[in-house]
Structures are given as C-alpha cells and as structure tokens.
Amino acid sequence: MTEYSSDLLRLLDARGYVHQITDAAGLDALAGTQIVPGYIGFDATAPSLHVGNLVSIMLLRRLQQSGHKPIVVMGGGTTKVGDPSGKDEVRKLLDEDGIASNIAAIRRIFDRLLTLAPEGEEGGPTDAIMVNNADWLDTLEYIPFLREVGRHFTINRMLTFDSVKLRLDREQPLTFLEFNYMILQAYDFLELSRRHTCRLQMGGSDQWGNIVNGIELARRIDGAELYGVTTPLITKADGTKMGKSVTGAIWLHEDQLGHYDYWQFWRNTDDRDVGRFLRLFTDIPLDEIARLEALEGAELNEAKKVLANAATAMARGEQAARDASETAQKTFEQGAVGEDLPSLSVEAGEIALLDAMVDLGLVASKGEARRLVRGGGARIDGEKVEDEGASVTIGDEPVRISAGKKKHGVLVRA
C-alpha cells in the first residue's frame, strides 16, 4: 500500500477502494488540511439502486467518516440523456414524473447510509447533501453552452472513450443524445465546484475518462484545481458482475427485494471474496476482518454470517438483519419455515411443483426446474423429489419448497 498522510486516503487505501487517483499527492495534502467536498453521480433510472452501486455509496460514506463532505448528485438532467458507459443499447428514456419519483425513493437509501442534511439545506460542515443536476442542466441554452463548453472537447478524443468505442466496435447504435453525456457530466463537476466548492469526484473505473474531462474543463474555464479517485471494477471471485444474481438485480430497497433475499445474497458470498467484501461493504474494524478471513472450512461460514448481518443492517436496518438471520437459522439449522422467505398463496390448495418453483422465483423457468428435479436438487419440506410431474398439496401448515441448498420458498393456502 502507498503511504498517505491524510485520513481519507489512508482509509480508502486500507479498505481496497483505490484504483486510480489523478493527483495523489495533491489530494492527500488537501484532505489533510481542510474539509473536502466530494461527489458521485447517480442516474435515476429505477426507484432503487442495487448492490452494484454500493461501492460508490460506500466511497461517500468513507469520505464522511474521514471528516469530509459528501455530495450525492442525482441525475435528474443526465437521466434524460442516458449514460452509454457499459451499455450495448440505448436506454429507455423516462419522463419528468418518473425521474422525480425515482429520486425521492433513492433518497431513502442515502438517509440510511449517510448523515444527510434536510432536503434543500447544506447542514453541518460534513453533512452530506443531495443535489439534482437538472437544476443547472435544464436551464442551459444550446448555443451559449456549445460556445463556452463544447469548444473544449474534440471528437477525436471523445471517440477514444471506452463507452463510445464499445458501441462502435460492436456496431451498436450510439445516439447523438448519448454522445453528449460525457460533456454534461464534465459540466456537472464545473458547476459543483462553483456552487458547492466541490474539489473531488469519485466513481468506478469506467468513469475515469469522464472524471478527467471534468477536471480539465474546470481548469480551462475557471482555473480550478480538482481531483478524481476511481475504484477497481468490483466483480465476484467467479468473474460475474457485482450486484447481479441468477434471479436478477440485488436491489438496496426492500420494496424491490425482501430482507431475507438481501441477507442471503451476502451469506452466499464465495469463500474467496469474504475478506474483500467485509472491507468494502461493512464498517467492521480491519483487525477483526483479518481474523474472520483467516477462518477455514465450516468456520468461514460464521464470517459469511457476520458479513450478511453487517451489510443488511447497514442498508436495511438492525431489525431487518435480525429477522433475516433468524429466518435463515430456522430454515437451515432447525428445518422450520422462517417468516421472511418468499411465499406464494395457492387458492386451490394444490399446485404443480414446477409451477411453484417458478412462481416463488426459485428458478427462472420450468426447464430449469426440471433440470433441478433430475439432478436431485428439488425438495418439499426437506424431502427430495424425483418426479417432474409432482404436485404439492397445501393444508393448514405452510409447505417449504427448496431449490438446491440455498433457495427456499413457502407455499400457503389462500
């Protein structure tokens, strides 16, 4: 690890967040002498962020923990354009009401993970604030914007950005609307430096080019000295993208994903990822993490439960973590049915096993359910089922359906 003098960079480095820094010595000196306002932008394309966004949220949390001021920038303006980064196709554009609704829902996530000032207020020196880039982007006049900002960007360089090259190399359409995104994001940094004395932008490694654009734009127009930090691409040990599962995105909001399923995502962490995820996604002290990641065999499962409890408590609250943990204990250790498992009410009192597995979200299709039955992975109340045509009869007691060792659901009579 690099030796840093500021609490901010020491914390980020020790926990594995640092991939690139535009000027490490300059940022280290600044963070050691004053409160640094820093921002990350989030587009409001859905009513919840997901685990793939969590490392960015944790960056803001670490910024605040080390005595600085987080700025959460909601992309009320840029969501109308669509970030082409990492995308093979054009995003569906939302209307004003949809964007506003999503921003209101997403704010609840940051209320839990940051000390957030009341809406529209600056709060204390290190209180996080949430701003909407529509406040400045919606009022731009096209010709003045092109003259002031557009002249600092060359098409030659814009074509070298990964977000653009990916689309062109795959012969996928890239609209002129999306092509403007990187200019608007650079302009965000300029506006934030003017409005909130913001000196730092952070983000994933795929945002490096956009961050550098903003730094250069602010230097050319205002002579401002700004900085950027990116995190490594966060993937799981099996190479899959963080934040995704077989059944879909791991949403941070309980409205989109139940507490138990969220807890279980962390409990199912690959052995090789436990230490890294404890450092990135929990506040557990580093010496305790070192002890937990050194555990082996069955004892490592205890470290995974610690991870699941801590990550769930942070995003969903202490009670949600306790409830999910108790459900898991009942399901796995006591053979009972936990209240937090996905459930399905069956009016007729009977349902085909394959249909039940699909409707409970345990598998994606009947074909997958059939393969699971053939492989011996389907169970009704703990008993293996070998008949693909089996039906489940529901009486007064709920029936537990299992798909493999880690996915369970409950059938109840309506």
Automatic annotation (TrEMBL):
UniProt record, GO biological process: tyrosyl-tRNA aminoacylation
Residues binding ATP: 244
Motif ('KMSKS' region): 241-245
Cellular localization per UniProt: Cytoplasm
Principal place of residence: cytoplasm
GO cellular component, one term: cytosol
Gene Ontology terms for molecular function: ATP binding; RNA binding; tyrosine-tRNA ligase activity
UniProt keyword annotations, A-Z: Aminoacyl-tRNA synthetase, ATP-binding, Cytoplasm, Ligase, Nucleotide-binding, Protein biosynthesis, RNA-binding
Alphabetical list of Gene3D superfamilies matching this protein: HUPs, RNA-binding S4 domain, Tyrosyl-Transfer RNA Synthetase
Amino-acid positions noted as binding L-tyrosine in the UniProt annotation, renumbered to this chain: 39, 181, 185
Ranges for domain RNA-binding S4: 355-397
CDD domains recorded: S4 (cd00165), TyrRS_core (cd00805)
Positions of transmembrane segments: none
Keyword Transcription regulation: no
InterPro entries, per database record: aa-tRNA-synth_Ic (IPR002305), Rossmann-like_a/b/a_fold (IPR014729), S4_RNA-bd (IPR002942), S4_RNA-bd_sf (IPR036986), Tyr-tRNA-ligase (IPR002307), Tyr-tRNA-ligase_bac-type (IPR024088), Tyr-tRNA-ligase_bac_1 (IPR024107)
Pfam families (UniProt xref): S4, tRNA-synt_1b
The reaction(s) this protein catalyses: tRNA(Tyr) + L-tyrosine + ATP = L-tyrosyl-tRNA(Tyr) + AMP + diphosphate + H(+)
EC number: 6.1.1.1
Family: Belongs to the class-I aminoacyl-tRNA synthetase family. TyrS type 1 subfamily.
Cross-referenced PANTHER family: TYROSINE--TRNA LIGASE, MITOCHONDRIAL, TYROSYL-TRNA SYNTHETASE
Subunit structure: Homodimer.
Its job: Catalyzes the attachment of tyrosine to tRNA(Tyr) in a two-step reaction: tyrosine is first activated by ATP to form Tyr-AMP and then transferred to the acceptor end of tRNA(Tyr).
Protein name (database record): Tyrosine--tRNA ligase
